[in-house]
């Protein structure tokens, strides 16, 4: 089996609607929006004073991770393997939709035969606000916040008695292009 790692440098785009500013910065995979915004100086220490509350605009925004990569030879059975997507997202290869994810606990595998090309390829992952994605659902009794009940992701990111609320998104585990037989 041949494998091309797609980890490393990506672009991160989004919008701070509260400030009316567009964001286009370097991103890193594996990672998440919060760590990339910290790395690029967009946000500061999340744990200082009320910073966790003042940076809640991050969870209300949609984000796009993108990168270009080279593929010298296209082989049959090509597939993109995302070991960790957090959480609601659509994936596009060369402008073609290849799949959707909404569960951070599963590996997501997408067949890309006929979409992947020899030479330069563009991969984009559109992440939707986990908060807005479940808005309007029936209210249910819950400790801390009910919105977490509808989302297949790490529950403590919505806040807990031991941690502030940091509802993030991103490609938090390796991603690769694989060819050949599945193991």
Describe this structure in words.
The protein has 183 residues and is mainly beta. The protein has a single domain (2-171), classed as Jelly Rolls (Sandwich). The protein is 8% helix and 37% strand. It contains three helices and twelve strands; from the N terminus they run E-E-E-H-H-E-E-E-E-E-E-E-H-E-E. The strands form three sheets. A six-stranded antiparallel β-sheet has the order 3-2-4-10-7-8, with helices on one face. A four-stranded antiparallel β-sheet has the order 1-12-5-9, with no helix packed on it. A two-stranded antiparallel ribbon has the order 6-11. Strand 7 (89-93) and strand 8 form a beta hairpin. It is globular. It starts with a strand and ends with a strand.
DSSP helical segment count: 3
Query: What's the rounded overall pLDDT mean?
Result: 86
Main-sheet strand order equals: 3-2-4-10-7-8
The unreliable regions are none
Write the layout of secondary structure elements.
Elements: E1 2-5, E2 8-16, E3 21-29, H1 33-39, H2 51-54, E4 63-71, E5 79-82, E6 85-86, E7 89-93, E8 96-101, E9 108-111, E10 119-127, H3 130-133, E11 170-171, E12 175-179
Antiparallel strand pairs: 1-12, 2-3, 2-4, 4-10, 5-9, 5-12, 6-11, 7-8, 7-10
């Amino acid at each position: 089996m041949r494998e091309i790692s797609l980890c490393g440098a990506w672009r991160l785009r989004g919008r701070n609607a509260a400030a009316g500013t567009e964001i286009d910065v370097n991103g890193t995979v594996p990672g998440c929006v919060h760590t990339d915004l910290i790395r690029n100086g967009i946000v500061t220490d999340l744990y200082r004073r009320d910073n966790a509350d003042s940076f809640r605009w991050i969870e209300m925004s949609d984000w796009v991770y993108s990168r270009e990569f080279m593929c010298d030879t296209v082989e049959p059975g090509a597939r993109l393997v995302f070991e960790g997507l957090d959480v609601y997202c659509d994936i596009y290869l060369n402008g073609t939709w290849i799949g959707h994810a909404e569960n951070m606990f599963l590996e997501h595998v997408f067949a890309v035969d006929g979409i992947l090309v020899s030479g330069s390829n563009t991969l984009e992952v559109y992440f939707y606000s986990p908060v807005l994605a479940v808005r309007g659902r029936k209210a249910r009794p819950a400790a801390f916040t009910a919105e977490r009940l509808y989302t297949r992701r790490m529950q403590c990111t919505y806040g807990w008695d031991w941690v502030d609320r940091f509802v993030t998104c991103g490609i938090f585990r390796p991603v690769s292009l694989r060819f050949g037989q599945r193991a």
